[in-house]
Amino acid sequence: MYFTRIVSRCAPNWVSSSGSRFPPPTGLLPDTDARGTLMELYKATLETVKSIPLYSKYRVNVERTTRHRMKLVEDTENIADLELKIGVGMIEEVILQAKDELQLIPFMIEKQPWNNPDGTQAHPISKIDLID
User: Is 114:58 a contact under the CB 8 Å cutoff?
Assistant: First the structure.
């Protein structure tokens, strides 16, 4: 109760993108079009990650996570509900994570952690024939 009074006195006009009375994390401003921003970032991420080999676990996981979050953004209108469904913090933090991932991809392409130091594939793709 004491904390609520302090927040209401110190920042009575702060409203995050989700409509919460709590301010966004320090240094992050509310985004008036958070869903649009996330969709643009997710589309750019999916396009950029195509430069990484298909056998890379990094690419597989980035694509899977990005597509999952993209679907949540498409299906959820309410930002507060979207924050709960994604479950990693306020929407401003989700946007920051998406920007960070997009900036990480060129570094990963440069370093190629999916290859051995001599440039050969760390885990060669093996073909498995299924028998009925």
Answer: yes
Give me the domain span that covers residue 52. 36-114
Q: Identify whether 65 is part of a domain.
A: yes
Report if pTM > 0.85. no
Give yes or no for residue 92 having a pLDDT over 80. Answer: yes
Q: How confident is the model at residue 24 (pLDDT cuts 50, 70, 90)?
A: confident
Domains in the chain, number: 1
Contact 97, 88 (CB under 8 A): yes
Residue 18 lies in a domain: no
16 inside domain = no
44 belongs to a structural domain: yes
